[in-house]
Fold this protein.
Amino acid sequence: MRSKSSVLETAVLGLLNDSPLHGYELRKRLNLVLGSFRALSYGSLYPCLKSLVTRGLIVGAASNEAPPHALSGKRARIVYTLTADGKEHLQSVLASSGPAAWEDDSFDVRFAFFGQTDAETRIRILEGRRSRLNERLENVRDSSARTRERLDEYTLELQRHGLEQVEREVRWLDGLINTERDRRRARTAGVTPGASLTADAQPAAPDQINPYVVDDEGRDTDSKERG
Amino acid sequence: MRSKSSVLETAVLGLLNDSPLHGYELRKRLNLVLGSFRALSYGSLYPCLKSLVTRGLIVGAASNEAPPHALSGKRARIVYTLTADGKEHLQSVLASSGPAAWEDDSFDVRFAFFGQTDAETRIRILEGRRSRLNERLENVRDSSARTRERLDEYTLELQRHGLEQVEREVRWLDGLINTERDRRRARTAGVTPGASLTADAQPAAPDQINPYVVDDEGRDTDSKERG
DNA sequence: TTCGTCATGTAATGGGTTACATGATTAC
DNA sequence: GTAATCATGTAACCCATTACATGACGAA
């Protein structure tokens, strides 16, 4: 249950859970998920795959010909597949909903694999991220209130813009959380799913108390060194 | 003219150009500028200061008492000041407007010090960043067009949201560029400045050709490994 | 035949964090 | 007296990038 599982590892395992892939292809898909759209280097990917093999979470098999959807023989490449251990590990990672799941670096990956994540976990992560962002917003507004006047025009504008981006992300989360709740309600009522992810962000309960469970991943909420 | 000058170094020099500061205080201000609002660790800051001292760009002086605005004796701390070399170096960094100035990591710092930057350079950096983002947008839309159908709901939503954020930043840049141009026009006409940074983003010329000058910082535009 | 893309890797390097170590000063 | 904040630093480590090395395949 302990193993750190970096963002990259989670992403690799998550993708391989959909279908076996070789490194080169893996990288391309990774770029769509990781950080939005930035190139991950092979210098990170291959050592990561190596390590996963060593730990028995995936296996690599040289596949010379006839890939599933017989395109063309191409060339020898190593197709990686999840092992039973790997699947188990992935499930445990995907089941966690502590701070580690909603911090900047990991949230995106976790969100990208929401399709393989339990509905309650999804909600917990979304709410966790939202309160994390709100907390940050509060900090910035506080410190801004104290130092606003002695900041020049551009610094101020940069701050304003940053704040706005975060506020927008909070509203995005509001919408997603509402959608998830609607779905939950529909599920328990036994109705066919109707809610779409792109539903408008209803104003949501004005004061959402969110007693998120910090059950895993060590790492508690009150770390100093934040403001 | 060559020296790499990391983001952190630029930020430090830029802040010290306003007024001499000691490490602890420096860090707090750095956090407002760098990456928006994230804690920079002393483990990065102090070695950086050390290196700047070694290279003669700043000098540290133990200041035991009477800080400028006589608060209280506090305690021995090391107040850093820019040297002539340091000022010169900073000016040359601030004068550069190549790709290195508008990439993700450095753009924020450069923008934060626009108050100390030449107007033409400001425009060039803003335009450079905008075309960088547009280029990225194009790439994502292209690859999205090819793989859209086999992506699940959440991955798709993540991508949509990422795209939206970037589009928003482009509009932000549109506004800033217009403001800068207005100011330039006002300047050459000898009028008192009236344009505010928060002016609405006019639709801007529908197709802005931007022949940005890649004059410094090695690093050309057509690096592979991007899509 | 040469260029672009597919494909897999390693070594050096870089830029940061965390944890550690230390100690004075201030507020409760 | 004791906790929080001020203040400065070092050492170990992490995770990723860049540059390098290699080579096959398909298309121009």
User: Anything to note?
Assistant: Chain A touches chain B at residues 31-33, 36-37, 39, 41, 108, 111-115, 136, 139-140, 143, 147, 151-155, 157-162, 165, 168-169, 172, 176, 197-198, 225-227 (CB under 8 Å). Residues 153-189 of chain A form the longest helix (37 residues).
